[in-house]
């Protein structure tokens, strides 16, 4: 998997995706889980598939350095504008399979719903392992395709998605995965329906809108963590 796989939602509709980012994880459940499992305070963080940099500031608030990696140049430009003037934050153009970073240069490699979707992402896993220091952590935040209602809508558009096969893949590669329940909370119905419109086919987006009467959507995630061994124990 050497080619860049497009992300039509944020690539084509970055302003709508901004509303989606603001709605996601309204209770902070994902950030709490990540912080508990891989605290990045005072450490060097890499955010793979950072998009327009929405999550960089959260890392930068306590990390030593933060590097965002994004293959789509227009999003890189938006990310650089977002973090302009922030100390210790950089954004670089590159795919997940070819990170422009030195060996053993990061303590945390984070990816949120970007690139690491199960079988086929092995080159990216290898690159993350390369740039991590011994004892460092690879943290992958995935949408849970087996968790209704959002997972059902995803599988309606992409019936080839197999939650069990995805989970088995990450288990084989040494990840500890936990489910995290979140709530997407929108300011108005126009925003909610616009986001559904960029995430799903028209038919499924209409179905989802019918099944969501208010301004919130329960969405399940999987937080997957793998730590790089620190080295051989010596007596």
TrEMBL record:
UniProt KW keywords: Methyltransferase, Transferase
GO BP terms: methylation
Domain Methyltransferase type: 46-140
Ranges in a coiled coil: none
Keyword Methyltransferase: yes
Keyword Methyltransferase: yes
This enzyme's EC code(s): 2.1.1.-
Stored Pfam families: Methyltransf_11 (PF08241)
MF term (GO), any: methyltransferase activity
Family: Belongs to the methyltransferase superfamily.
PANTHER family, alphabetized: METHYLTRANSF_11 DOMAIN-CONTAINING PROTEIN, METHYLTRANSFERASE TYPE 11 DOMAIN-CONTAINING PROTEIN
Name this polypeptide is given: Class I SAM-dependent methyltransferase
Taxonomic classification: Bacteria, Bacillati, Actinomycetota, Actinomycetes, Pseudonocardiales
């Amino acid at each position: 998997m050497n080619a860049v796989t497009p992300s039509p939602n944020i690539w084509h509709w970055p302003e709508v995706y901004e509303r989606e980012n603001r709605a996601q994880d309204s209770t902070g459940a994902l950030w709490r889980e990540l912080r508990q499992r891989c605290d990045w305070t005072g450490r060097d963080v890499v955010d793979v598939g950072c998009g327009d940099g929405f999550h960089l500031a959260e890392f930068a608030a306590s990390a030593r350095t933060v590097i965002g990696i994004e293959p789509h140049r227009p999003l890189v430009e938006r990310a650089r504008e977002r973090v302009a003037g922030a100390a210790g934050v950089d954004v670089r153009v590159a795919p997940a399979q070819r990170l422009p970073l030195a060996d053993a240069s990061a303590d945390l490699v984070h990816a949120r719903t970007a690139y690491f979707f199960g079988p086929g992402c092995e080159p990216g896993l290898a690159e993350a392992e390369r740039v991590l220091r011994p004892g460092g952590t690879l943290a992958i935040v995935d949408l849970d395709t087996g968790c209704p209602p959002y997972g059902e809508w995803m599988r309606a558009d992409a019936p080839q998605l197999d939650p069990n096969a995805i989970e088995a893949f990450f288990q084989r590669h040494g990840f500890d995965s936990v489910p995290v329940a979140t709530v997407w909370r929108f300011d108005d119905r126009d925003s909610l329906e616009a986001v559904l419109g960029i995430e799903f086919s028209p038919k499924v987006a209409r179905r989802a809108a019918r099944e969501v009467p208010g301004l919130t959507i329960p969405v399940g995630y999987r937080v997957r963590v793998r730590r790089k061994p620190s080295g051989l124990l010596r007596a």
